[in-house]
Design brief:
The protein is mainly α. The protein has one domain. Helix content is 83%, strand content 0%. It contains six helices and no strands. Helix 2 packs antiparallel against helix 3, helix 2 runs parallel beside helix 5 and helix 4 packs antiparallel against helix 5. The model has no long low-confidence stretch (mean pLDDT 81).
């Protein structure tokens, strides 16, 4: 049996939606920031014409890209976790977890908006 208040997701739908919007903004902003900083670092290294700096900036760019990929897939990982946890509960829990999952992964979705208006 799950240790969860049966209506926690529907009561906190506005918070889950805000978290979803923040993650959505991060999914757009972080790749742009990675590209801009990568271009600046590589440009400085190429202008300096030092092999060590070029290798260092390429390594930095790769690490930033890995971090960006991880952040990009956070909503998918959260959705998978909610789906796995929902499998162990009753149908009431599945509906609640679907509200959490929809608001985090798709904050502009109609199901999430309905849950937010119902919570208010």
């Amino acid at each position: 049996m799950l240790l969860m208040v049966p209506s926690i997701c529907s009561k906190l739908a506005p918070i889950w939606q805000i978290i979803g919007w923040v993650l959505w903004i991060f999914k757009i902003a972080i790749p742009i920031v990675i590209i801009v900083f990568g271009m600046i670092d590589l440009g400085k290294a190429v202008v300096a014409s030092k092999d060590d700096e070029i290798k260092k900036s390429v390594k930095s760019l790769v690490m930033r890209a890995i971090a960006g990929i991880i952040i990009f897939f956070i909503p998918t990982i959260v959705g998978a976790i909610f789906s796995l946890v929902a499998e162990f509960g009753s149908d009431d829990y599945k509906e609640e977890y679907d509200i959490c999952k929809n608001c985090i992964i798709h904050p502009k979705d109609e199901a999430c908006n309905n849950a937010v208006t119902a919570a208010e």
